[in-house]
Amino acid sequence: MKQLIYIIAFILIGFNAFAKEGTTAQAAFNQANEAYKTGNYVEALEYYHQVAEEKQGVTINYNLGNTYFKLDKLPESILHYERALKFDPSNVDVLHNLRLVNAMIVDRIDNLPQSKANIWWKEFRYGLGPDGWAWVSIGLAVLAVVLLLLYYVSPRRNIRRFGFFTGILCLFLMALTIALAQSAATYRNTHTSGVVFTDKVDIKSEPREGSTNVFVLHAGTKVSILSQDGEWYEVTIASGNQGWIKDVDFEEI
């Protein structure tokens, strides 16, 4: 009996601590919003970062991106918009603001040419992100259960047939969306990228200071990380150019 009481007390203490953390984060978020509305962006930034330490997500990173933009810190703004897209790749507001900020940085990099089919497939496969596909699969699962119940309980043969075949189709689509969710999660976890923070940085041919400069990047440019060698990272940009950059010159998304 004592053990049960201890367990219940432990759970209640943990729940109260969790609720307190949530309340603290919400209070900081509200204070940040008020500071942002009054134009006190430095104070807003402090409160938003307090929230970000406790909880990550599309909203907090979107707000951080907006605040950094107001402070004319474009690399930081781009970094947080990109982090927001990791949670919601198809968020219209984030994509719009990111395009605006990217138009203000120094580097103009053309993407490697891709077929329309390849572009469409990538947008379809990764556009919703793992969370989005997970919700779609849950919806299909619920629909499948309803339709299969209809098959079992309906006295009318045509409705039963409809319920059975449509329910099976929903189960098939559910399996497909689960696979897409897993694929999107794997892509998000394995394809790391970063944003250049140094005003101007020489990208090297090898992971050492004395190696040849292959091209130059400026603050705000996004890079995809290929490999790491100590403090050096091999990166590629949208045009396909590759080289090595030090960890102090960029921030990982």
TrEMBL record:
Annotated transmembrane regions: 132-153, 162-181
Keyword vocabulary terms for this entry: Membrane, Signal, TPR repeat, Transmembrane, Transmembrane helix
Signal peptide from the UniProt entry: 1-19
Family matches, as Gene3D superfamilies: SH3 Domains, Tetratricopeptide repeat domain
TPR repeat residue numbers: 58-91
Keyword check for Glycosyltransferase: no
Protein name: Tetratricopeptide repeat protein
Organism of this sequence: Cryomorpha ignava
